[in-house]
Design a protein that fits this description.
single chain, 68 residues, mainly alpha, 2 domains, 3 helices, 0% strand, Type I restriction-modification system, restriction subunit R
């Protein structure tokens, strides 16, 4: 079972990769989805046991990355 800290570390790693991908395809990604990419990744990986604080962190990171 993955711990909350490991989960957040993995999400941060994915966030860095996602930011790079967004830089390369920024306009295309924005047109395809109203959600930020990290949020989409989180929703795909989320389990019933994922702490609510992790979801809030993901939202905050996406808000910063999106500049809003």
């Amino acid at each position: 079972m993955i711990t909350s800290i490991e989960f957040v570390k993995e999400l941060c790693k994915l966030a860095k990769e996602t930011v790079q991908a967004e830089k390369e395809l920024e306009e295309e990604i924005k047109e395809k989805s109203p959600k930020a990419a990290l949020t989409e990744l989180f929703l795909e990986l989320k389990t019933d046991k994922a702490p609510a604080v992790v979801e809030r962190i993901v939202h905050d990171i996406d808000a910063i990355v999106r500049g809003g």
